[in-house]
Amino acid sequence: xxxxxxxxDTFPTLLDRKPSSARRARGVSERKGEAPPSTIVKTFIDTxxxxxxxxxxxxxxxxxxxxxxxxSLHRKNRWAEMSPPALLGDAGxxxxxxxxxxAAAKKGTRLVNAVHYVDKEGGRRSNLAKGKGTDQQNLLTxxxxxxxxxxxxxxxxxxxxxxxxxxLQKKTSRRAGAFxxxxxxxxxxxxxxxxxxxxxxxxxxxxxxxxxxGDYIVSKQEYVCPPSTNGVTATKESRDASPVDMSAYVxxxxxxxxxxxxxxxxxxxxxxxxxxxxxxxxGAHEQMRALTTSAYYTRWLDANERRLMVDLSTSVCSxxxxxxxxVLVFEKMHNSKNIKxxxxxxxxxxxxxxxxxxxxxxxxxxxxxxxVEKFNDGRPPREHAAxxxxxxxxxxxxxxRDVVLAEHREMSITATSDDFDRIxxxxxxxxxxxxxxxxxxxxxxxxxxxxxxxxxxxxRGCLTQTICAILSNRMIVKLNVPILKGDDLIVECKLCMxxxxxxxxxxxxxxxxxxxxxxxxxxxxCPPHDPMDxxxxxxxxxxxxxxxEALRIDANPKFARALTxxxxxxxxxxxxxxxxxxxxxxxxxxxxxxxKKRGGGSIVARNARLVALPTRxxxxxxxxxxxxxxxxxxxxxxxxxxERAARKMRGEAGAFAADAALALRPTALHAxxxxxxxxxxxxxxxxxxxxxxxxxWEALRTAVQEEKExxxxxxxxxxxxxxxxxxxxx
Length: 730
What we know:
This protein is an alpha+beta fold. Among the domains are: 39-157, no CATH class; 216-410, no CATH class; 489-528, no CATH class; 615-730, no CATH class. It is built from 22 helices and 24 strands. A six-stranded mixed sheet has the order 2-1-8-3-5-6, with no helix packed on it. A hairpin with a 6-residue loop joins strand 22 and strand 23. Helix 8 (213-220) runs antiparallel to helix 14, helix 8 runs parallel beside helix 15 and helix 20 packs antiparallel against helix 21.
């Protein structure tokens, strides 16, 4: 049997080889100096919800994150998209949303630097911690007070490194010289080194986000001069027109939306249509890319290349001279093959007559033909009419208004090109980067791709994403914001202090705010008081107290018992009334014992005292009608009972119009209250119109709730409509 013998002459390297190091333990990183990753974790804190209810609330969130799973912020551009303002708008009204910011650490910490949340009124608030941070429960007190399920986002961000970190078990690059790991505080330079340091200029990188295109647009494009609709040809006056302050128009948009681009702010048509592109020979996105190399002036409105703006002003008129006559925005749909086209023109174009197209070029040609026909229709005299440019070969850079836009385009091309690292000539003679420095976001260690910022280092890819994110935030166009026309009026809502656009302009008398859903008088900010003017309504309000007069509808007490509920609501209870209900928390109190009757427990109302009711200053026949209408209109319990009865009667497939009855209820009650007040201010003998309207309403309510007869309900509804028409209410 052959026995293996080790031959030293055959394998001489095995004798001289050094013993290898031990195997790296599991979970130990090869680079201990590597910065901890930045992550985001979504947590759902419920208050005893069921499994189905929890799944439904989580499905309504618009993010793609699973619960209790850490996701890296460096992938899928999450560090730019998942910011606190964007995360606070993902959930609905049934869930309280909060965003926690903390600094990532190796050993892990529960200290929180900031908490962003949405309060009860719908506003966004931020609680900041001092020093290194505090416990998250100290900053989430107001969030838990809302008594809702909490959707919590935890953002763990890598802190900016102040000094270079040397990797473990890695040779130092000789290109940057010797790397001394001594502490800077203990290092004392020699006299020669001090002189050299004083004479050498301080070197600083020039690649900072302050050179980005977004800041340049903000500093240059604060105002815009809208085109004039009465003139057609270019004049010196139109080119030198004074700028119009558009700050009021920008505030009309909701707080979470961005202001529209200055290219889309003009008088005229602003319409959006959806065009089917399934049967097109070429893809829609491919055709949008092809338009960027065409003769039209184009510009991408976002970093993802989903929205493309095409300026066709020079195609409509060859002498536009700085006017935006026709602008199209093509948007690629997210889950569909269709294309959304937004048209903005100074003329009112009828898009229903737009013929079908097989490509974007045909669609642009048909739109330009429609605009040219409308633009030259009925514009005398002929010598001043616009001249159509059929060649469509003019570019936007040849027009005076596009000089600034051409600079923007050049800067954007420079920012996205490979030569971005050579902006200044002084960068060619730059010093070597210290070894061991990494990108603060992706931990890239290649020195050729690192750029020094004010507080940290970024690689080429992260710096490009940073600039593209700034451009996307500055240049986004909100397509569903309407255009401000010349006859519109911007007013301030007295209830929520937001700016509202009135379509009727100076002819409007009532303001309906889309933000707070409130209706008020345009002049005084009070509830609508037609047919009285503001002075008469102010005098009526000083004499009439709806809460006190409501106590005197059935009786005429001189004293009432004042209760303060545990929720803080003040209540007035007549002496002969058996019980009362808090309108805020719906707790029922007994009139004798003043204790809580329903809801469990026995809670005594605070500050129960007898108060003297003021002397009546308005006649009983006027005050009774106004108080009855006011109490009926503002009572949520009565409204819910009437709505359930009306819905049930509609479900029986009858001829009763339940929706019309529900819509006429607040209108009739408010009109009855104002008619009674107007009759009192006019010194009439009795409020006949208001009394007739209240009788018609009582007949309708009795037929729907108590009798539940469909024929009587239909007749009562018709009678109420006739009375409203006679008084001019509808």
